[in-house]
Design a protein that fits this description.
A two-stranded antiparallel sheet has the order 1-2. It has a single domain, classed as Glycerol uptake facilitator protein (Up-down Bundle), CATH 1.20.1080. It is mainly alpha-helical. The longest helix has 24 residues, at 3-26. The protein is built from ten helices and two strands, in the order αααααααββααα. It is globular and about 50 Å long.
């Protein structure tokens, strides 16, 4: 598998399972309807695990433009490769969200709340306050990248830099990281922490023939793009200073 294809497939799996758990919780008539925030955050964490396990051996499993940019800022990834990775991530996000819609099409049709339909594709603030919403996504993106840059591939570094091996389950720390970000910081904006995860499916929401759908909330769409990128870049910069 090429790096480009790995990012497409990994991101598609991430959105398929992450968007799928949201659909299961918020759409009418599903088996998991109204099962709550714990189910959503757990589903997203495990979705990250799946995406990282599949893409990791081939591309490093960025699956997130904020991560690709942050790694380039840190000098750990070539700037020339960033556009290619971001394109792959957006393609994968679009594919994943399309499959989520197709699987749940009857439940979309049975759901009259257009905000619930949009929530399957993209995030929205609990209270709309753009400066605070931006700061929330900034902090989430910062924590994500700051911790990722303290993980060493499939190993954590122990005392005196002795590796603590995790073998094939090296994606577990990242899954736990996304889980705790969702549980602790996600209640304000839905913790996009990933521009492709939010904007790619939002574009699909605008395109797909969804019954009773609302607009795609483009007035808010820049926040889950800019916030994680800025947060990740600052985290990367601080890591370069050995913080």
């Amino acid at each position: 598998m090429t790096e480009f294809l790995a990012e497409v497939v990994g991101t598609a799996l991430l959105i398929l399972l992450g968007g799928g758990v949201v659909a299961n919780v918020v759409l009418n008539g599903t088996k998991g309807n109204s099962s709550g925030w714990i189910v959503i955050t757990t589903g997203w964490a495990l979705a990250v695990f799946v995406g990282v396990v599949v893409a990791g051996p081939y591309s490093g499993a960025h699956l997130n433009p904020a991560v690709s940019i942050a790694l380039a800022v840190a000098g750990k990834f070539a700037w020339a490769q960033v556009p290619c990775f971001i394109l792959a991530q957006f393609i994968g996000a679009g594919i994943g969200s399309f499959i989520v819609w197709l699987i749940h099409i009857d439940h979309f049709n049975a759901t009259e709340d257009p905000n619930a339909q949009l929530a399957v594709f993209s995030t929205a603030p609990a209270i709309r306050n753009y400066p605070i919403n931006l700061f929330s996504e900034f902090v989430g993106g910062f924590v994500l990248v700051f911790v990722i840059l303290h993980l060493k591939g499939a190993e954590l570094q122990g005392i005196n830099h002795v590796p603590i091996g995790l073998g094939a389950v090296g994606a577990i720390p990242v899954a736990f990281l996304v889980w705790v970000i969702g549980l602790s910081l996600g209640g304000t904006t839905g913790y996009a922490i990933n521009p492709a995860r939010d904007l790619g499916p939002r574009i699909m929401h605008a395109i797909l023939p969804i019954k009773n759908k609302r607009d795609s909330d483009w007035a808010y769409a820049w926040i889950p793009v800019l916030g994680p990128i800025l947060g990740g870049a600052i985290a990367s910069f601080l890591c370069c200073l050995n913080f």
